[in-house]
Known about the structure:
- The chain is α+β, with helices and mostly antiparallel strands and 175 residues long.
- The protein has one domain: 7,8-Dihydro-6-hydroxymethylpterin-pyrophosphokinase HPPK (Alpha-Beta Plaits, 2-Layer Sandwich).
- 34% of the residues lie in helices and 21% in strands.
- It is built from five helices and seven strands; from the N terminus they run E-H-E-E-E-H-E-E-E-H-H-H.
- The strands form two sheets. Strands 1, 2, 3, 4 and 5 form a five-stranded antiparallel β-sheet that branches. Strands 6-7 form a two-stranded antiparallel sheet.
- Strand 6 (105-106) and strand 7 (111-112) form a beta hairpin.
- It is globular.
- The structure holds adenosine monophosphate.
- Residues 70, 94, 96-97, 109-112, 114 line the site of adenosine monophosphate.
Amino acid sequence: MPTIYIGIGSNIGSREANCIKAVEILREKGIIIKKASSMYETEPWGLKDQPKFINMAIETETELSPEWLLVVTQEAEREMGRQSIAKWGPRVIDLDILFYGDMIVEMERLKIPHPLLCERDFVILPLSEISPDKVHPVSKKSISQIAAIKKPTSAFSTQKGMKMSLRARRAWQSR
Ligand code: AMP
């Protein structure tokens, strides 16, 4: 089974709890959770005038094709009450497929690796925690190389999220 990385973000309501709930929903839908990063509080990207985000990343496995995985992640977003919203606007949950093995997907509604992955601290930081050696199939650079080149633009405070995430991680990974 391919190793797949999914980015998770929330900036509405109980942000940490929303991220944890999203992982639970994915697990209930049959996605195998292998690793989960800490949570990071990040400045909003794109549209600045909105609350800060909590972001994390998970390493998963599934037999689902990339297209079906997108259907499942979008279903999970809807189940959590996500509405159609402004591009880069506030959201109760956001699930992005970052990598699907080394596959490159260039469809109108699905692009993998996620196109803005290398530019976003909120993706690179959690990914470099759980998978620093993962090589980007297009740039051929590892996540830790990308993190080293990139200038950090966001402020992070991980304390609170880290504790919740550790508890949840133990539960997911022992199943
Ligand atoms: P966003 O508002 O960032 O959640 O973007 C959602 C849109 O991005 C959806 O219409 C998806 O079809 C599209 N999309 C393209 N590539 C991806 C990807 N790798 N993961 C998740 N959504 C994607």
